[in-house]
Amino acid sequence: MIPPRFxxxxxxxxxxxxxxxxxxxGRGRVLLKRDxxxxxxxxxxxxxxxxYLLGRALADRCDVLVTGGGPGSNFCPAAAVxxxxxxxDCELVVCGGDDWDDGYGSAxxxxxxxxxxxxxxxxxHAREALDAxxxxxxxxxxxxxxxxxxxxxxxSTPLGTxxxxxxxxxxxxxxxxxxxxxxxxxxxVVLAVGSGxxxxxxxxxxxxxPVLGVxxxxxxxxxxxxxxxxxxxxxxxxxxxxxxxRRLEIVDARGPGFGVASQADRAAARLALxxxxxxxxxxxxxxxxxxLTRRAGGVRGPVVFWHTGGVVxxxxxxxxxxxxGRM
Length: 327
Ligand SMILES: Cc1ncc(COP(=O)(O)O)c(C=O)c1O
Hints:
About 45% of the residues lie in helices and about 15% in strands. It is of the alpha/beta class. A six-stranded mixed sheet has the order 1-2-10-7-8-9, sandwiched between helices. A four-stranded parallel sheet has the order 5-4-3-6, sandwiched between helices. Strand 8, helix 8 and strand 9 (about 250) form a beta-alpha-beta unit. Helix 2 (about 45-60) packs across helix 6 (about 160-175), helix 6 packs across helix 8 and helix 9 crosses helix 10 (about 285-295). The protein binds pyridoxal-5'-phosphate. The site of pyridoxal-5'-phosphate has 18 residues, from strand 7 and helix 7. Pyridoxal-5'-phosphate (PLP) binds near residues 46, 193, 196 and 199.
């Protein structure tokens, strides 16, 4: 059964054909699933898990959402605005010191602050420390008589994963109903993988198409087992059959490091902007799109690039490069 949903996104997000990109790549159909246009603040793919997380928080009569992330997190502003819309307070545990205005992700935290979120830096730059700090803060709030709803960074719980299990059905329906895929099933659906929830949701739904996850922050073994565990737990929660791991491949695209795009990643992002008008960030979109451009030639049939958002850091990085004369 689908859990309670607090609607935020404008769904379905558009599915469009990338004609100019196809011409440059010299291949047949490339489709774009535009979750960057998910329609709530600039939440991108993170709007989807938040619908089910807030649905549960409201059903449980919670009064404060407690979550967190790095200073550049796209989940934090989306969570803060979503909590406000649902009538909940929001506390964000972020790594780094009080100087969270690092000139890069700061616009994201500014959105969160504008939504009224209380931002709590933990003074530790290790993102791995965040989930424990979120639980700790939630326990303190509960001890003070509040009703907190703690969510680990990225919203990566089996419940949050439901957002993308539903999204998988959304894409399948769009492909069936439109002529975009030319009657063929996608040969590959490509998306960026951070905390793993989006990719896991697709897997949980058991879609008829294979998924290529592009890991940007964790080594392969770690992220692969995380995605499978989340997919299984989500499928169980929904009463779906156990997901088939053969539908999923994950590649390690960390390259020069988390949040740092290689020359090839930047060239791919430029291609996306110049052909299809896509704004891709260095952390997620550029790396996933670079993998898509490398793989597209080797597969027969339509490929789908799932644009997961990250528009705020994408614009911040462009601004720095334009001002620095490094386009
Ligand atoms: C723009 C963007 N794309 C992709 C992802 C990865 O999604 P997930 O954490 O569900 O793997 C994130 C995560 O924050 C994101 O912000």
